[in-house]
Amino acid sequence: MANEVVAVELEGGRRIMVEAMTRGDEKVAFSMPKFSGFAEAVTDISRAVMAAIDAVKPDSAEVEFGIDASIESGELTALLVKGTGTANLKITLSWKADRP
Fold first, then answer.
1. Among 42, 44, 74, 85, which lies 20 to 30 A Cα-Cα from 52?
2. H or E segment and range at residue 93
3. How confident is the model over 61-96, as pLDDT tens digits?
């Protein structure tokens, strides 16, 4: 797998440059992948994490996750990637000691 900087089209037609991994012999320069599927993956991951946080109701929460972009079959794909340590998500929750 190699990394390439590719132009990606956002919903409103704006183009941005994204560093993406290519898998196999993908020829990314001949087509412009859409960002919508990538954005939906980030939204879905965020909603799932938020639902879990809402269930435990901390006073504060901090979430960190890494996502790589990959070109697969001409589509931009989101890959949840390992950061430092062995977890894909780093979540910090805290509660005040004087909670009723």
1. 85
2. strand 89-94
3. 999 887 777 776 667 777 766 555 555 678 899 999
Tens digit of each residue's pLDDT (9 = 90 or more) over 25-38: 555 455 666 677 77
Instruction: Provide the whole-model pTM.
Output: 0.61
The helix/strand/coil state of 73 is coil
- Counting beta carbons within 10 angstroms of the beta carbon of residue 21, is it exposed (0 to 12), middle (13 to 18) or buried (19 or more)? middle
For residue 40, the surrounding DSSP H or E stretch is helix 36-56
Q: How many residues does the chain have?
A: 100
- DSSP one-letter code for 34: B
Alpha-carbon span 51 to 75, nearest angstrom: 28
Burial profile 83-99: b = 16 or more Cβ within 10 angstroms, e = fewer: eeeeeeeeeeeeeeeee
pLDDT digits (tens, 9 = 90+) for 35-58: 777 778 888 888 988 999 999 999
